[in-house]
Here is the input.
Amino acid sequence: MRYLDHAATTPMRPEATAAMQAFLGERFGNPSGIHGVARRAKDAIEAARERAATLLGAAHPLEIVFTGGGTEADNLAVVGAALARPGRGVVTTAVEHAAVLEPARFLERLGTAVAIVGVDRAGRVDPEEVVAAAARVDAGVVSVMAANNEIGTLQPVAEVAAAARRAVPDVLVHTDAVQAFVSEDVSAEAWDVDMISIAAHKFGGPQGVGILFVRSGVDLEPLLHGGGQELGRRSGTHDVAGIVGMAAAMQAAVDDRPAFRRRVGGARDRFEAALRATLPDVVPTVAGADRLVQHAHLRFPGIDAETLLVRLDLAGIAAAAGSACHSGAVRTSHVLDAIGLDPAAAKECVRFTFGWPDRPVDGEAAAAEVAAVVEAMR
Ligand SMILES: Cc1ncc(COP(=O)(O)O)c(C=O)c1O
Here is the structure.
């Protein structure tokens, strides 16, 4: 088995699994209660909140809102901010994850003015275009992802935030850092943004739990109404084990980041170099952009990506296509479309993503295995 799909989800780190054990057993309390069993669960949640705040560059633990994953964090940011600011517009980019683009389309159906900013050939947004769009729709919220999940391109988040505020001083700036957190220094303070989304399962925590950082004083309309947990911003009984596991994974990921960039980035670099030495016609989809160290997005001229993925799977290799597969329907990737790749070329692209268990030598081994499958197809 060769797993090259860490951007979809990555295995749990041992630190996270270990931290969760007690909360799947004897520490089963509901943190919203007042008795001792509940308090022990609540203490764990608050310790996780403090740790998460520190690791995200937040000024206060109460700026951390626990959610049911990245999608919920993105929805709370975009829809929650827009509903709290009626009559104001929303600005986002053409390469966002569906967890941002679909909420934006939902708001548009409700009558919100939505501006979608394009990107260059490498998938980068121009902060000046954000300025123009924000002014045009009197933006209440701007959402620009930190790193793209398909092609790995990094966005200039701090510049975008500053530029957006030049156009509309009270605009709220959100960034989806779901893919970035594992390898990039994600910091509310350094980026000076109002909201940040992360998802535990992308950096070694459990699936189905995430965080929306919300700067103090920012008013959001909650999406889930109920018992008033998370200061009313997200009702519902906490996933205590998930939150504890996420905080442990955050700590492990942040501690590992510099080594991750060398180790996992080394695997990616050696993978690309070895693959292209064997198959010289294979080309990176984007060139010249800052991109995630763990991402390789490659075009195999003359090879249908869907067929290649099936062949790779038969050979025990897990990768992902440049097109997204939703409920069985294969669509051309909106990201590849946005960078101007023609549809025929887009159908020849495959994403290989490395993760925390990988070492540099794994890159060469993976390249040899992938090259053998491609050569057998030719
Ligand atoms: C950039 C980005 N945003 C949001 C999400 C959604 O996160 P989750 O799967 O935790 O709902 C993903 C997941 O692939 C992602 O890559």
Remarks:
- DSSP finds twelve helices and 15 strands in the chain.
- The first strand starts at residue 2 and ends at 3.
